[in-house]
């Protein structure tokens, strides 16, 4: 089993720490990755941290390809700029969204 974990897609919004921005990938790169993995059952997709790009970019691309992914949301960041809102999470009963665990902060303790 291969798990591809994404942290953010597209240009990181203003305020994203430099250390986190290093883990973001371009939207075109993300689409190419999805096309390369196709429908492979041995590849799982996941998203960490609950960035707004999860809903704005990832979900439509996943749905277009009939893929699902697990989303691991940091509850303490809900509603912050560049992060998912509570409404985004409540509206996540979409075919592509499979809920993962949530946390209040990151492992380092920073929200």
Give an account of the 3D structure:
This protein is an alpha/beta fold and 111 residues long. A 4-stranded parallel sheet has the order 1-4-5-6. The chain has a two-stranded parallel ribbon with strand order 2-3. Helix 3 links the parallel strand 4 and strand 5. Helix 2 runs parallel beside helix 3.
Total DSSP E strands: 6
Quaternary status = single chain
Helicity level: 25-40%
Count the helices. How many? Answer: 4
Strand content: 15-25%
Q: Whole-Å distance between the termini?
A: 30 Å
Identify the strand order in the major beta sheet.
1-4-5-6
Which structural class do the helices and strands define?
alpha/beta
> What is the averaged pLDDT score?
84
Structure, briefly:
The protein has 111 residues and is an alpha/beta fold.
Give the helix/strand layout.
Layout lengths: L1 E5 L1 E2 L8 H4 L2 E2 L1 H11 L5 E7 L3 H12 L4 E5 L12 H5 L6 E3 L12
Parallel strand pairs: 1-4, 2-3, 4-5, 5-6
Distinctive features:
single chain; 111 residues; alpha/beta; four-stranded parallel beta sheet; two-stranded parallel sheet; 4 helices; 29% helix; 22% strand; globular; disordered C terminus
